[in-house]
User: What shape does this take?
Amino acid sequence: MRVVVSACLMGESCRYDGGSKPCDAVRDVVGRMEPLLVCPECAGGLPVPRPPAERVGRRVMLRDGTDVTEAFERGAGATLERCRSFRAPLAILKAKSPSCGRGLIYDGTYTGRLTAGDGVFASLLEREGICVVSEDVVEACRPSVEHPVAIVVGTGLGHIKELVHPVRRIPYAEIPGFPADARTIEGHSYEAVVGTIEDVPVVVYPGRIHLYQGYSAPQVTSLVRHAHRLGCRDIIFVCATGAVEGNATPGIGIITDHINLTGHNPLDRPDNLSSVESPFVGMTDAYTPYLRTLAHGVADDKGIGVSEGVYAGLLGPSLETPAEVRALAALGVSYTGMALVNETIMAHALGMNVLALTLASNAAGSPDMTHESVLAAAEANRDDMDTLVSGVLRLL
Ligand code: SF4
Assistant: This one.
């Protein structure tokens, strides 16, 4: 996978003060990718060392009052041309910088205060459709023994637990909030497996329960809260769906967003909120763009065909009517299913990084969509799904 990286994060002495800002997490991740190191400020011809620069409105000013906007724009434009020929889907850039910063940058007072905004180069890359993240995102997604990756899998996809070198098992019956009377569905197994995949610490939950079985939103999200309590910061959901005709075709997909049509929400219960600051959780980027980009990168590298799209969470258990499928298509929905949305809301509220992969086994609402057809599609796509999940873990 190709990646554009701020040179100073890799240890190059290109900063205004003549130093660098090496980041171990970035160096580790980039070591498993094909990187292009860039320094847009150097490309703009700015000397090193020099006084610090900050964005002041639309301008970029050095602390001594010199206006360096033109040099920043020239360097960003020239570096963008290099990035275009390199064709990387991802850029890992130095946080807060007036050139490379994304989301928050120094506010022009030269006091260390931050304001909302993007650096000159970062904003060009974003306009280009490249996923831009800072080293903070890479660090926040980095797994460890203390922060294993949770993987929650749905119907027919429990084989992912076979990738695990197990260390211990946790019966779901021991998980707080998981219903003691949970009824088994074929294709689901009720025991979490703790161990490693590709030497990455993981906790795999090879089965889930659903609202349509009569369980509540707090019950169906109990596995997510359990993973969070175990220290998991990243959570990968793998679920079976139907593909909405016109917007998606059967096969493997990456969920970009969701529409919650279940009529339920796990944040409407006070007993579910102990680790959540506020129930009024913003849901923008609930499906972590960085993780989605890694999944696309793995798919490209391995030659796995994937599409992406919006998931509509439905209560079920009846399938969609033709009119509902047409309505969902008009709403921009690509995938339909009876899981995921409440779990993602819970995970996002807990501050977890979410990746949702799906296997669309049939056309949404198709009478051909039976439990058996879902299991058959899962089996047929088993190797690709395993490769995708393992590949993402290897890049984290
Ligand atoms: Fe680092 Fe970017 Fe500044 Fe260069 S322009 S020193 S790469 S933050």
